């Protein structure tokens, strides 16, 4: 039997404050967490949602060094951007704090010190790379060198971004410090490690036996780690930015960010509820849910629980960790370093008042069981064909007809017919499915359930046709429109977790004082005789030019990335002059040029080669308009063996050069020459 809890603590992964948040973060963590929190509040449950910025770690120091500012400057900037954009999107944190707060500093220090005093850490010395000029140990990202796998000269100490291989700094060939450029040396250093292997038996029992209901991706990743055998993990590192290790003789050492960050959930709860925070962390009647992305599963299911077990004192372990997979963008992995993302703060500027559209699309495409893809065309289609044409259309029809026939006053129901009763029978089934899906973190399916209420409404109006009935039977019309208005009220309740702005607008339009989950599925939310407001469009169509601008922005980013990362192709093997002379390269003048039918890439040229006219087919149609090439002079290989392309005999090959973005440029002389002139 499922345990009933008195309260729920929801935590959300702390976004890294070295940049803004993007749609991948939203789809993976923050939108589903907010849906769940809003749902529980509608049910009247005791729930708090905890969030905050992760403000320590190497990436922040690297960004600060690049910009010539302090790490504090970086985290202050991005914490505010993140916090403000979350608020504008309607993510309803009870607190959104930060790991540079005094409360967090004290909490994390005390946490480490308790484990230290209990003897829960293992001290180890090791040899690490050290920059003698900068007088500091080098974190992995502060070391670059030649990748031993692909030869990339600028691989990082933790990963080669060219071949994707995970590395350690000592594997790099000719390592160098990114701080001074000097060659680092190996130097002994001491750190503290949390022996995860000590907690492996408890973790096996808790996860593998006690939480088989977890999502397969979460359960499977945990089982994989446990089956491989857990190893001690460092909880400190040599760095000048972070929470100092609170032990004598630990100068220049800070808490490792992975150890520091999850304690932020505790410190932020303390900041919110200084007198009662322990109720949400130590009372067995509290259920804790971690909302995270799949890259954080191990930290939240193995590492943080090990920390809590090591600490003791009644800390409860999470009841569920509904981690999502990754969201891609236009078929490519989202990457902050490549600027391949849709940034929330920019979206809010580009699409004012359309917070709910983004929430809807990200939920509909939620990567709950596998990676999924966001495209701007799908965004537009879902807005226009679902939010506008289904949801907005039904509400608008119901409210407009109520104003037309009853002056905006909700009419009383008369005798109910089977078609009316069927509506509420189906509505009750939708509520059951919706509640079940929300309870089990199936938010994508839950959103479909909510939308089915609007589909039900549209179907009902089409079947009953009140605009025709009103010509002869106003009593029957009154019943139909009462049912329609009740469905609108049900929509306001069902969509509040998903689309809070639309729900609030609809609540106001219908004159509802408040809403709660118990209203959903009922046929008398709004009393007969109640006045409703004037109809307002809940959503508006998004035009092609708006979407084309976003697509072009991404195309420009991709093109710039290709330019920035372009490298000259390795030189081919040397050939002797006699071999080169076998290629007869000549100049010809383009007489005619047309596209090859049913071939997107091919152009058909008629070339004056000085002796005759020859046909050449070339794959450059994506980069040139045929008419622009007529009269131009081009270089071509004259003595290629003729071959057929799409049924056309091609008598040579036109020469072109490839740009970093893959586009082709036809090669020709810089001044006019006689057709047939040889290239020497």
Automatic annotation (TrEMBL):
<comment type="subunit">
    <text>Homodimer.</text>
</comment>
<keyword id="KW-0694">RNA-binding</keyword>
<dbReference type="InterPro" id="IPR041872">
    <property type="entry name" value="Anticodon_Met"/>
</dbReference>
<feature type="binding site">
    <location>
        <position position="160"/>
    </location>
    <ligand>
        <name>Zn(2+)</name>
    </ligand>
</feature>
<dbReference type="InterPro" id="IPR014758">
    <property type="entry name" value="Met-tRNA_synth"/>
</dbReference>
<dbReference type="Pfam" id="PF19303">
    <property type="entry name" value="Anticodon_3"/>
</dbReference>
<feature type="binding site">
    <location>
        <position position="163"/>
    </location>
    <ligand>
        <name>Zn(2+)</name>
    </ligand>
</feature>
<keyword id="KW-0547">Nucleotide-binding</keyword>
<dbReference type="InterPro" id="IPR029038">
    <property type="entry name" value="MetRS_Zn"/>
</dbReference>
<keyword id="KW-0963">Cytoplasm</keyword>
<dbReference type="InterPro" id="IPR015413">
    <property type="entry name" value="Methionyl/Leucyl_tRNA_Synth"/>
</dbReference>
<keyword id="KW-0030">Aminoacyl-tRNA synthetase</keyword>
<comment type="function">
    <text>Is required not only for elongation of protein synthesis but also for the initiation of all mRNA translation through initiator tRNA(fMet) aminoacylation.</text>
</comment>
<dbReference type="InterPro" id="IPR009080">
    <property type="entry name" value="tRNAsynth_Ia_anticodon-bd"/>
</dbReference>
<keyword id="KW-0067">ATP-binding</keyword>
<dbReference type="InterPro" id="IPR004495">
    <property type="entry name" value="Met-tRNA-synth_bsu_C"/>
</dbReference>
<feature type="short sequence motif" description="'KMSKS' region">
    <location>
        <begin position="333"/>
        <end position="337"/>
    </location>
</feature>
<feature type="short sequence motif" description="'HIGH' region">
    <location>
        <begin position="15"/>
        <end position="25"/>
    </location>
</feature>
<feature type="binding site">
    <location>
        <position position="336"/>
    </location>
    <ligand>
        <name>ATP</name>
    </ligand>
</feature>
<keyword id="KW-0436">Ligase</keyword>
<keyword id="KW-0479">Metal-binding</keyword>
<dbReference type="InterPro" id="IPR002547">
    <property type="entry name" value="tRNA-bd_dom"/>
</dbReference>
<dbReference type="InterPro" id="IPR012340">
    <property type="entry name" value="NA-bd_OB-fold"/>
</dbReference>
<keyword id="KW-0648">Protein biosynthesis</keyword>
<feature type="binding site">
    <location>
        <position position="147"/>
    </location>
    <ligand>
        <name>Zn(2+)</name>
    </ligand>
</feature>
<keyword id="KW-0820">tRNA-binding</keyword>
<feature type="binding site">
    <location>
        <position position="150"/>
    </location>
    <ligand>
        <name>Zn(2+)</name>
    </ligand>
</feature>
<dbReference type="InterPro" id="IPR014729">
    <property type="entry name" value="Rossmann-like_a/b/a_fold"/>
</dbReference>
<comment type="similarity">
    <text>Belongs to the class-I aminoacyl-tRNA synthetase family. MetG type 1 subfamily.</text>
</comment>
<dbReference type="InterPro" id="IPR033911">
    <property type="entry name" value="MetRS_core"/>
</dbReference>
<dbReference type="Pfam" id="PF01588">
    <property type="entry name" value="tRNA_bind"/>
</dbReference>
<dbReference type="Pfam" id="PF09334">
    <property type="entry name" value="tRNA-synt_1g"/>
</dbReference>
<dbReference type="InterPro" id="IPR023458">
    <property type="entry name" value="Met-tRNA_ligase_1"/>
</dbReference>
<dbReference type="GO" id="GO:0004825">
    <property type="term" value="F:methionine-tRNA ligase activity"/>
</dbReference>
<protein>
    <recommendedName>
        <fullName>Methionine--tRNA ligase</fullName>
        <ecNumber>6.1.1.10</ecNumber>
    </recommendedName>
</protein>
<keyword id="KW-0862">Zinc</keyword>
<feature type="domain" description="TRNA-binding">
    <location>
        <begin position="579"/>
        <end position="680"/>
    </location>
</feature>
<dbReference type="InterPro" id="IPR001412">
    <property type="entry name" value="aa-tRNA-synth_I_CS"/>
</dbReference>
